[in-house]
Write a structure and sequence with these properties.
alpha/beta, single chain, Aspartate Aminotransferase, domain 1, 389 residues, globular
Length: 389
């Protein structure tokens, strides 16, 4: 809808800051080590066959070792299930939980794929609030009020898409304790794991698996800048064996038996990707993002009709509130984004898409000159629509 609203004869380039695909910008390219790993896997001819439905053993083993570095215990390859990106991981987990009468707790704002898949599987959704004034922390009182005997799980996205927040250890532990009290498992979406640009370090939710069972979802898409390679995972963090006793593990295996698998050569490349990517690559990406995030935050602060509750600390996007009383001829967030696209060839995501009306989600995984251009156009747009005193 936004693309269709662009002005055809606008000579300026369209600046797309509405989705989390950094590969659209030249500075966000994957490491040479990842490319060489994929080439080596192809040339080896060892990965031309069908893969096991749960994934190639050496890839599962490598991911278990990679994720174990964030934990106080060791994962095994049997804890790891490979998927076609994190999207398929979401699909599988929702399918497993979609029993008659069940419901799931999703964050508001959140990633819309969960709600879309839950609707497809006829799994009831209940939204709990994230509090912008508290760094988008989970409102745990609202979680307890929403849950009942039919609640299966709570989804936690950290680092947060769409909010750009990174939760502290203490808050994550409180979430785990609340989930245990309610008798539900935690689905930890960590697709942006380690993409942290603020002061809060990334803490894996699996660290609290002794309190509550955790299904961790992740991928190489964002940290390695390869969303099109479609390599994700589901990991069972379950030292107490609850996911086995309740049949969750068996159901995951059964679902994988009737779904498609990630390309086998990409799976074959995973051990080399994880082993040979040097820290300089990650630091460079984070430095680009940090500079962009700081510029975006300061630029938004200088526009009266917009409010950014906090400087982004992680992931690749941030939520910005539209102060509608300060604007003329702008009805809501969708109208704001449609008019911005038409008048300035800049595309943001309306907040209603991620569950928060009259906000917008802005991606800051972009090159600084491009971001400067986009925010300059945004300022002009807001001045044009500002209410006259």
């Amino acid at each position: 809808m936004l693309w269709k609203n662009l002005t055809p004869n606008d000579q300026r380039p369209t600046i797309m800051l509405g989705r989390g695909d950094p590969t659209e910008f030249p500075s966000f390219q994957t490491t040479t080590a990842a490319v060489e790993a994929a080439v080596d896997a192809l040339r080896s001819s060892n990965f031309n066959s069908y893969s096991p439905t749960v994934g190639v053993p050496q890839a599962r083993r490598a991911i278990a070792e990679y994720l174990s570095s964030d934990l106080s215990y060791k994962l095994s390859e049997d804890d790891v299930y490979l998927t076609s990106g994190c999207t398929q991981a979401i699909e599988l987990v929702i399918s497993v939980l979609a029993q008659p009468g069940a419901n799931i707790l999703l964050p508001r704002p959140g990633y819309p794929q969960y709600e879309a898949r839950a609707a497809y599987e006829k799994l009831q959704v209940r939204h709990f609030d994230l509090v912008p004034e508290k760094g988008w922390e989970v409102d745990l009182d609202s979680v307890e009020a929403l849950a009942d005997d039919n609640t299966a799980a709570i989804v936690i996205i950290n680092p947060s898409n769409p909010c750009g927040s990174v939760y502290k250890y203490k808050h994550l532990k409180k979430i785990a304790e609340t989930a245990r009290k309610l008798g539900i498992l935690v689905i930890a979406d960590e697709v942006y794991g380690h993409l942290v640009i603020g002061s809060n370090p990334f803490v894996a939710m699996g660290e609290f698996a002794s309190i509550v069972p955790v299904l961790t979802l992740g991928s190489i898409s964002k940290r390695w800048i390869v969303p099109g390679w479609r390599l994700g995972w589901i990991v069972t963090n379950d030292p107490n064996g609850i996911l086995i006793k309740t049949g969750i593990v068996e159901s995951i295996n059964n679902c994988l038996n009737i779904t498609s698998d990630p390309a086998t050569f990409v799976q074959g490349a995973v051990p080399q990707i994880l082993e040979k990517t040097n820290n300089e690559f990650f630091l460079n990406i984070k430095n680009i993002m940090r500079e962009a995030a700081e510029f975006l935050y300061e630029a938004i602060e200088a526009i009266p009709c917009l409010t950014c509750p906090q400087k982004p600390e992680g992931s690749m996007a941030v939520m910005v509130k539209i102060n509608l009383p300060l604007l003329e001829n702008v009805v809501d967030d969708v109208d704001f984004c449609l008019k911005l696209a038409k008048e300035e060839s800049v595309i943001f995501l309306p907040g209603v898409v991620v569950g928060l009306k009259n906000w917008v989600r802005i991606t800051f995984a972009a090159e600084l000159p491009c971001l400067e251009d986009a925010l300059g156009r945004l300022k002009v747009f807001c001045q044009r629509h500002a209410k006259k005193p």
